[in-house]
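Example record

The entry below shows one chain as it appears in the dataset: sequence first, then structure tokens.
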Amino acid sequence: MNSCTFAGRVGSVKELKRTQGGEAVLNFSLAVDRAPRNGEKQKPLWVEVALWGKQAEVLQPYVVTGGIIAVTGEVDLRTFEYNGENRTSLIVKFPRVKLLGGGQKQERESGAAEVGDEDIPF
């Protein structure tokens, strides 16, 4: 079984994009605190999260830098090159998301559809 749960603060949030097929996708990073070792605070573990479809559209205004979020989903590794170095990052796919507080709701751009309570999937 491939399942993981992370809770942390939202770092960077990418712009809501659409695939060529029109499906919405929202990517953001999550800083997860690690337990202190030898009395020293550890650097956070950065996890990438990908939201798709209706979930991405509905949660986009609430996924803001500094907000506290818990995600449960399938973990995958993404390998990429950065400044000539091979790097690997964790990405959580198909997550269930729980908003835990912090951050401020983003203002919607004019012309965007309003979202009611019945549209929020939690």
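Notes for this example: DSSP finds one helix and six strands in the chain. Residues 107-117 have pLDDT under 50 and may be disordered.
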